[in-house]
Amino acid sequence: MPKALGTWADGSSMHALGSVMTDGGHCGFKTWVHTKRGGGSMFSLFNSDNGKLLALIEARALGMMRTAAVTGVATRALAPAGARIGALIGTGPQAVTQLSALAAVQEWDEIRVYSPTPEKRQAFVERLAPRYGFSLRACDSLEQALDGAQVLTTITRAAEPFIDTALIADCRHINAVGAILPGKAEIAQDVMRKADFIAVDDKENAVRGSQELRDLLGTELSTWTGVKSLSELLVAGESRPANAQLTLFKGMGMGMSDLAVARRVYARAAELGLGITLPAQTRENLLLN
What we know:
Radius of gyration: 20 Å
Structural class: alpha/beta
Order of helices and strands: EEEEEHEHEHEHEEHEHHEHEHH
Helix content: 25-40%
Oligomer: single chain
Strand order of the largest sheet: 8-7-6-9-10-13-11-12
CATH superfamily of the largest domain: NAD(P)-binding Rossmann-like Domain
Distance between the termini: 33 Å
Number of strands: 13
Shape: globular
Number of domains: 2
Largest sheet: 8 strands, parallel
């Protein structure tokens, strides 16, 4: 089910995504709210055969894992195999899992890290560098982070685009996975126009929510003929076009990836006896109470 989106006040938003995997007998919804003062998220997992509610899963970590995992899949499919220098822009909680996914799919010599606050980017590198065999380096500027970087991943809440063509002379692939609301953007239009190939995780969600792609291609799905979904690419056995100079993946979030992770979390929790078991409630009990 395509994302439902509501916005209000000073950039606050509420979202809902749903999907079903009938072969596994599961369906579910992720709902979440974001405000400048905080937010929360929940995944509701159901049995798709009988409609029984199986689990309620706090979904912040779940969302971080699925967002990063899809970035990893996109990087493996689209980034040049020989790319050894990466740049990660953003040092929030989502950046931790993004880094983990990048490390899982490619061999790196160095990943440069930049965010506007020196203390945050330095703390990010000091905490995470011991986990990896490649160099993780905090950079003092975007220019320093992107000089020579072949793969760029952005995971920010930027309201205005800050990545333009002057910064990415050496870049061959971009994962643009922040800015998932209309009116927000990380990537400037000169970069969008420069990309030889663009993929998204979900076309309908991108049409509704990606300002970068809406500005480039319009607001109707019928005009997005050059954009492929990542699933289409994988099913067809395709990867980075041989003649592409720059590829771009725009991740918006999709219900199927949420459900895939929620199923694993639920199965693991059941196996280990984790979580709180709620008492069974019948419709009659609820009415009487």
